[in-house]
Amino acid sequence: MIGAIAGDIIGSVYEHYQIKTKDFSLFHPRCRFTDDTVLTVAVADAILTGRPYEQSLREIGRRYPRAGYGGSFIGWLHSNHPQPYNSWGNDSAMRVSPVGFAFDTEDDVLAESEKTANISHNHPEGVKGAQATALAVFLARMGHTMEEIRGQIHQRFGYNIHRTVDDIRPTYSFDVSCQGTVPEAIIAFLDSTSYEDAIRNAISLGGDSDTLACITGGIAEAYYRDVPDDIRAKVSGLLTPDLLGITEAFCQKYPQESRTKECT
Asked: In angstroms, rounded to a whole number, what is the distance separating the alpha carbons of residues 76 and 69?
């Protein structure tokens, strides 16, 4: 999941200053982790500890009140009796990549990703976005080709992913919905030639850059089997000790088959 976190950090500076080019410095001086990272780590924590997803998200999320949560999620995070609020926002997709790395059957990935969404984002599109993202990570991790991934995601979820980044970029704009983010993030991966190229694709679309790159980054890491060492090192230096500790523990428990390096 380090690939998802790196995507969030790299994309953070462009969330409200969208760009339409792949020519940019990977780590701007103002890059930071956002709510995408905090909640991704929280999902990983729940998987590691066996705690309910809601418990981990609320506990870890409250440690970082300025991470950039949406208004409805802030209300859920601090409620005494949190209830799902029928959201179709892309938060459900941005945080789900650990499921694709941790579970070993399609049925389990789909069931667990639905659980991660339903605690807050229980709108059908919110659940769909989480499931599509987690399944794409899983399929990439299991060695499926890009065209096999494209075909399965399209067939199961009906997303129009028979487009290219160049097709999307000219008219795409900021969009916080799952239905307007997840297909584009998957296409950014499908159009890539490396992990870094996938991240550059996602950010160059000019949308919700940190979330697009977070979703793309998880899939790209699973497919390319690694994240470049310089990116790993930068991410490690930007995470707080508690977030880094959970990330390291998760990557050690759920290593990719071909990986020989430490996670961070």
From this structure: 10
Q: What is the DSSP string of 222-255?
A: HHHS---HHHHHHHHHHS-HHHHHHHHHHHHHS-
Q: How far is CA 52 from CA 46, 100, 115, in A?
A: 6, 17, 9
Answering whether pTM is above 0.85, one says: yes
Write the pLDDT tens digit of every residue in 26-44.
999 999 999 999 999 999 9
Query: Please, which residues have CB within 8 angstroms of residue 207's CB and are 6 or more apart in sequence?
Result: 18, 172, 173, 174, 175, 180, 181, 184
* Domain 2-18+31-62+86-253 class, CATH top level: mainly alpha
Secondary structure of residue 89 in the 3-state scheme:
strand
Which residues make Cβ contacts (< 8 Å) with residue 29, sequence separation at least 6? none
